[in-house]
Amino acid sequence: MKRLLPFLILCPLVAGAQDLASIRSAPNLEKRAGLAVDYAVKCVAVARGAYEAGRMADMTTALEETGAAVELALESLRATGKNASKSPKHFKKAELSSRGLLKRLDSLIHDLSVDEREPAEKARERVRKVQEALLLDIMGGGKRR
Q1: Fewest CB atoms less than 10 Å from the CB: which of 1, 7, 19, 25?
Q2: Taking Cα atoms as reference points, which of 119, 120, 141, 23 lies closest to residue 72?
Q3: How far is Cα 97 from Cα 92, in angstroms, rounded to an integer?
Q4: How does pLDDT run across 27-67, given as a tens digit for each residue?
């Protein structure tokens, strides 16, 4: 029961949270990016809870959602047309959150056995690419529109 308790606590948080389809329909692009990053953070927590409960399929699904959510955040921020180095507020928030996600994913990967790491490593790679792209945009070396 102790191992199941964190998952039971987190389930209502994610169940009440939006899914990617509803986040994608948010009209404000900057708010959409923030919602997507928050959703990715919750997905990592769900993935950890699923792993601790022994439900690997749920963990894999949550990790795939994590990668999709951070990529949606990057797409949304770039779609604003703003220069990240001149208006860095939302870009920097997303970059800092993605850095935190990387730390959480590294911790999860460390806890997983070698055979179970592939989905988490794929998610970490997707988040790392987004974090680097955001950082390059902020520093002025990324895509400019």
Answers
A1: 1
A2: 23
A3: 8
A4: 999 999 999 999 999 999 999 999 999 999 999 999 999 99
